[in-house]
Amino acid sequence: MIPTTTSAKLEKLTHLHFYYHNNIAGPRATAVPINPKIQPVDLRDPASLFGRLTIADDPENSTVVGSAQGMYGSASQTEMSFAMVFNFALTQGKYKGSSFCLLGRNPIFTNPRELAIVGGTGAFRFSRGYAMLKTYYMDMQTGANTIVEYDVYIRHY
C-alpha cells in the first residue's frame, strides 16, 4: 500500500431554509402508509398511530429546490412522535445533485424540534449537522396533510 497525502480543506457551514409538504390524503397524495391500519387514527390518541409506517416521495410544491425521499413510522404510544429517515435530494442551485440524510425522533407537536443530519452525497459528503423543524400547517381533522418549516445547518467540506 502506498501512502497518500491530502491537503486539508476548510470545513464550511451551510444553512438551508425550506418548507416540506407532506400529503397522505386526497388526489395529490405524495406519501402512503405501507402497512395496513389496524385501528382508526385519532390525533388525540398517539397510540392509534403506534407502529404505522409511511413512505414518501414528495415533489416540490413551490419553487423547485429538491425532493424528500424516505420513510417515517409512529414510534410512541404516549405522544405523537415519529422515527424518521429521509434523504433530501437537491435539484437546483449551488448544491444541485447533492443530498443530505436526516435521521431521528420527530415529536410533531413540539415546536421547534431538532433532528440530526448524519451524512450526505456530493457537496455534502462527510456532512453532519442538525435540522430545526416547526409545523407550519397541519390538517387537524385528519392529520393527513402537513407543511413543515425546515432550518438545516450542515457542516461539510
From TrEMBL:
Q: Quick one: where is this thing mainly located?
A: secreted
Q: Which domain of life is it from?
A: Eukaryota
GO biological process terms on file: phenylpropanoid biosynthetic process
Q: Where are the transmembrane segments?
A: none
Annotated Gene Ontology cellular components are:
apoplast
InterPro entries given for it? Allene_oxi_cyc_Dirigent, Dirigent
Q: Which UniProt keywords apply?
A: Apoplast, Secreted
Instruction: List the residue ranges forming a coiled coil, or say none.
Output: none
State where the protein is found.
Secreted, Extracellular space, Apoplast
Entry-linked PANTHER family: NUCLEOPORIN-RELATED
Q: Which family does it belong to?
A: Belongs to the plant dirigent protein family.
Quaternary state and interactors? Homodimer.
Function, in words: Dirigent proteins impart stereoselectivity on the phenoxy radical-coupling reaction, yielding optically active lignans from two molecules of coniferyl alcohol in the biosynthesis of lignans, flavonolignans, and alkaloids and thus plays a central role in plant secondary metabolism.
Its recorded name reads Dirigent protein
In its UniProt entry, the species of origin is given as Linum tenue
